[in-house]
Amino acid sequence: MARTPFEPGPDAAVYVISVAAELSGLHPQTLRTYERMGLITPGRTGGGGRRYSHSDIELLRQIASLTSAGIGIEGVRRILDLEHRVAALRARNEELQ
């Protein structure tokens, strides 16, 4: 389905932290903690305010799902790193084909 010219893409940083927290089911302080830990990197406004994208919200939901399943933060970090590597390898494989 095509987006309208006014509909932001999945990587457009449009959600303030309170909305991102509500959409992800996490507390705003948890989002700040995950940012400090390097698990997520929200966009920033000119004044320094955090702005989250739809992709960021999906990542936060994934992190919440993993932690609620009993996986520790370091395990989550490792899983996310491995998923990024797999995605990069798939992209590289497609390039080579």
Question: Can you offer a commentary on this structure?
Answer:
The protein is mainly α. Helices cover 58% and strands 4% of the residues. The protein contains 4 helices and 2 strands, in the order H-H-E-E-H-H. A two-stranded antiparallel sheet has the order 1-2. The protein is globular. The protein starts with 16 loop residues before the first helix and ends with a helix.
Task: Please supply descriptive tags for the structure shown above.
single chain, 97 residues, mainly alpha, two-stranded antiparallel sheet, 4 helices, 2 strands, globular
What is this entry, summarized?
With 97 residues, this protein is mostly helical. The chain contains four helices and two strands, in the order ααββαα.
Largest sheet: 2 strands, antiparallel
**What is the CA-based Rg, rounded?**
15 Å
Write the element-wise H/E pattern from the N-terminal end onward: HHEEHH
Number of helices: 4
Fraction in helix:
55-70%
- What's the multimeric state? single chain
Structural class: mainly alpha
Mean pLDDT: 91
Number of strands: 2
What percent strand?
Answer: under 5%
Quote the distance from N terminus to C terminus.
Answer: 28 Å
Shape: globular
Low-confidence stretches are none
> What is the strand arrangement across the widest sheet?
1-2
